[in-house]
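User: Run a structure prediction on this.
Assistant: Running it now.
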Amino acid sequence: MFYKKLLTSLMLTSILSLALTPLLALAEEQPQSTEATEISREFSDSSILAESLPELILPSESDVSETASQSEENAAESYEELPSSESTEQAESHSLDSEEDEEDTYLSPIITEDNQSSLGSSLKTGMRSFSRADTRLAWDQSKLPRTDFIDVSSHQGNISVAEYNNLKKYGVSGVVVKLTESTSYRNPYAKNQIDNAKAAGLKVSAYHYSWFTTKKSAEAEAKYFAAYAKELNLGPDTVMVNDIEEPKILDKVKTADSVAFANALIKTHKFNQVIHYSSLSWFSSGNGPLDIPQLGGAASTWIAQYLYQPSKDNLLHQTASAWQWSSQMLFPGEKRVLDVNIDYNGRFSKKVTLTPQGPYIPFNKYVNISNANDSVYSNFNWKERYKSSTIHKKTYLAKGKYDHINGNVYYSIYDSKDNWMGYINSQSTTITDAHGSYIPLNRYVSITRDNNPLWSNFNWKQKGSSKGIYNKTLLAKGEYRHYNGSTYYSLYDSKNVWLGYIHNGATKLTTANGLLSAHSQYVTVKSPNYKTWADFSGTQQGTTTNMNNKTYLVKGANHTFKGPVYYSLYDAKGKWFGLLNKNATKPAAPQGPYQSFNKSVTITNKNYALWSNFNWKRKPNSNGLYNKKFIAKGLYKHTNGSTYYSLYDSKDVWRGYINSASTKLN
């Protein structure tokens, strides 16, 4: 088997040499690009080779024996040899017949020192060719972005304390060391690189070059990574990096697998911080497969993007945790060309004193409190300020946020009067606009004010006013709890016509039967065929049989959602006669309507009174009419309970109104 592999390797080397010779010759003839644009043409196809990349300055033989053909740009992958030719073909393509099979049997590539990859290798492979002068950067604090930390692998070999101390002179205060790749490779120089970095006072983080394409393989690689980290005495607060950039797995990359990798490190292996590294084109912000929000937000990413002319005045990806802005930094006194990075929030370097909650990040977005079962905190020692139920469904301004090492994001929220409300887990909120989130309500409301505006939108374009719907009962299908502290109902009538948004202060919650609103009016019952009601639950009070043509005082009215209005009827003595449909009545004066009578009556009460009107003004010259006959042409059934005749004498002269009780029919 050894000779078979050796023969295959020699044949591939010969073919590759023949194929590359004209390409390399052609590359040398190309003119050098001088345009000042981004170098971030990040190729994901590993078949595209770097065109005449400058030779790297490698460690001395005493540190590590590596040749240019073994550099990270030209590393070739090999896979675990399987028992049959069919299995070998599967391993070389790193794929299985089905996702289900892959979950059951994870075939990890066999990684050795000869074919291992380092952080950013896929991006470096895809870079366009430059001369040594254009590619390598000399440290210049006045022009270039900060060099907060570097990242190293076995390609850098052993690094002494003195070398680290030299780098510190130029702003380097952290180092990210490659520990593992797949489930078969460990960086043999990691212990030296870590121990000497610690001795020099640098902050140490670690990265793993990932090959996983399933949840199971992600968890397996996380376990392998964590085991070596613990063996090297890296504590739980160490930043652990998922270096997800291998071109061969691009078409299988799923955000969920990187989340599983991070969760395994945090929940199973008890490391508190995980960052995801890749080039811009792999993240969703660059239209790649890795969804930044699912990974935990921009602060959970470390983005590689190289510029032709990097500048401290053009800092990219400032919402990310860090930006790798060059792979070609040559520091004074150094032989190695190093990757350099700017640390935006202090996770990788000692530029910022890192607290568990991380640095304050400006946010300035409105949020609606969607979870009533959480806590709002006064500080990150988890002192509870109050329960989120106190502010449930209300809208606040999240001025800032914190990406805590526990994996959660916490918002610092304020009300409309700029009062600080506390810290709340972002998962208990919903990002919204100033008017807040739509909250289903489906409650009936009565309109209690006749001068309130109805709004078309929350830019305060007026749709109408409450004058036309005053005292009516409407359906509030939903509500908005605005940042300004007010609640607005979305109103609909019984025909499902939207009427607009109204301030809830102009309404009162009720049932479909509406509220009993104040109403003072005299009405006369005009039909004997209606029922009167004691309430809206179906309890009958009586009928209008004995109320017909009588006049009552309306003291209240219910405007129901479906349309009918019910009057609450009283007589002059304050006796309640129940609720009656308005349609069974007609407006009247207190005396009620005139009713034709035309009967002869005799005044039988010596103390009779004749009235000129129903304001009770006495009729003059009405004495001496006792025991005389008159014609009662009409009558009135007054709300005071009495009936009054309209009297005429034999000459058809009107003599006034008299209480029927002072007369008798002839």
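The longest helix spans residues 2-29.
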